[in-house]
Amino acid sequence: MKTGKCPHCGSDEVYLSDDPLQGLFAIKTDMGDLFSVRGYLCLSCRAVQFEVLTESAVLFGKPKQLQTEVPLSTNWQKINKA
Ligand SMILES: [Zn+2]
User: The pTM is what?
Assistant: First the structure.
């Protein structure tokens, strides 16, 4: 999707939005960090793909990093292969 080609149907009718759900959907940690998503939409087969941004949304101060905050949060559990 990122390259502009749909991996499901092969179409190049792929659109990108930096606010696909108008702020209604974000990845959250239990520390209150919010990581916005961008969305890719294929107009040919209507597949949607979301990509989480690496830095948290902030009004003030420094953004937090997705890579460090998610492992620290209890509402996200790493899936361990048996
Ligand atoms: Zn498609």
Answer: 0.77
pLDDT tens by residue, 24-68:
888 899 988 999 999 999 999 999 999 999 999 888 889 999 999
Q: What Å distances lie between residue 32 and 6, 29, 73, 77, CA to CA?
A: 33, 5, 9, 16
Please report whether residue 6 resides in a domain.
no
Residue 7 lies in a domain: no
Q: How many CB atoms are closer than 10 A to CB 41?
A: 16
- Cα(6) to ligand 1 centroid in Å equals 5
Please give the distance, rounded to the nearest whole angstrom, from the Cα atom of residue 69 to the centre of ligand 1: 33
Give distance in angstroms: CA of 5 to centre of ligand 1.
8
Q: Domain residues for 59?
A: 14-72
Taking the centre of ligand 1 as the mean of its atom positions, its distance from the CA of residue 56, in whole angstroms, is 29
Number of domains in the chain: 1
Q: Considering the domain boundaries, does residue 67 fall inside one?
A: yes
